[in-house]
Amino acid sequence: MRSFLDRPLPCLPLLLSFALSLFAAPSSPQENPFLDDAVRQLAERVSAIPNLHGPLRLQFLQDASFAADTGKEWQENFRKELEKRRLAVTEDSAAILLRVGLAETPTQLVLSAGLRVSDKDEIRLVTLPRSSFRAANAPAAQVRIEKQLVYQSAERIFDATPFPSMSGAGLLLLAYRNAELSLVRLDANREMRESISLATAGAHPSRDPHGEVLVHAGDIWILLPGKTCQLSWSAPGDTKCRAAKSVWRGPTTLTPSCDAGAWKLLAEGNDWTTPDLLQLVPEDSARKGNAALLSDFPGPILSINGEENLASALVVTRNLRTGNYEVYKITLACGN
After folding, report:
1. Do 29-139 and 160-243 agree at the fold level?
2. Fewest CB atoms within 10 Å of the CB: 22, 272, 285, 319?
3. DSSP bridge partners of 231
4. Domain residue ranges in the chain
């Protein structure tokens, strides 16, 4: 009987090929249909934006360390996908600027695109599970940001918060009205219903133009530099203010219904003489400053306050062109 050692050995090249296949590295990002499909989806959603016509000037935003994992071929693929949809790409500085970002979190990859069309911000998102980075068919969530101007006034507005009324979803503003720091209540139609002066309680604007208002269990709290005030709308005469070190609210977080990931809304707001950018950053971003979305505003962003709806927030800004103070509603919505 012939022993195992007496049998002819398989071809050595085949053995080496089989052994190497067991330890081969995963396919490169450039060969990954998962990332290619996400890029295609994003280009398709951009091309469906109403009233969008080329040419477009592209700006890619991606963390340098993360770029080592994904490469840059996805950027060229995105250009090609736009051109397939009859959207020309150019380097002309006069063309519409389209910002395209690729961000990562421990759980997600986020592709985003944002531009301004007909005086309206249009931003689209495609989010995918991070664990499926090398999967061929990963589920994707399509998210967009909606920005709606809900109120504007020549009077200074420090902060805005939702304030439900009998007529529906109203607003409560902390504003400088008739030379006094006041609370202004708006109804669902954004018409002013009442105004309460805080001057009698000793609340006045300071050199630091910063103030926040919040509503909790029927009580209203006003946070000012070095001072905190409390009142009830039913008994405004009982307003009480005391010296206190104010603890300002942290970043507002939004969570759209079709995406398990949460997004922080951030803005610099340090320079009152220049327009600001609203940044949407994945809450569990793997790297600091890894912003996925940017939305232009007509002036500095003065406050950001979340609504009861976890997908919406209120943003206060000062329009440098008109001089008016404006309140915008920002919503993370699903679909195209």
Report:
1. no
2. 22
3. 220
4. 29-139, 160-243
Helix/strand/coil (H/E/C) assignment for every residue in the chain: CCCHHHCCCCCHHHHHHHHHHHCCCCCCHHHCHHHHHHHHHHHHHHHCCCCCCCCEEEEEEECHHHHHHHCCHHHHHHHHHHHHCCCCECCCCCCEEEEEEEEECCCEEEEEEEEEECCEEEEEEEEEEHHHCCCCCCCCEEEEEEEEEEEEECCEEEEEEECCECCECCEEEEEEECCEEEEEEECCCCCEEEEEECHHHCCCCCCCCCCEEEEECCEEEEEECCEEEEEECCEEEEEEEEECCCCCCCCEEECCCCCCCCEEEECCCCCCCCCCEEEEEECCCCCCCCCCEEEECCCCEEEEEECCCCCEEEEEEECCCCCCEEEEEEEEEECC
Alpha-carbon span 130 to 264, nearest angstrom: 19
323 phi and psi angles, rounded to 5 deg: 85, -5
User: Average pLDDT, stretch 23-35?
Assistant: 49
- What pLDDT digit, counting tens, does each position of 130-142 carry? 765 544 444 456 7
Distance CA 310, CA 333 (A): 11
Check: CATH 3.40.50 for 29-139?
A: yes
In the chain, what percentage of residues exceed pLDDT 90? 30
CA atoms within 13 Å, Cβ hemisphere of 170? 16
CB 44 within 8 A of CB 84: no
Task: Name the pTM for this structure.
Answer: 0.67
160-243: in CATH 2.40.10: yes
Percentage of the chain modeled with pLDDT above 70: 75
For residue 38, give both structure tokens: 């996400």
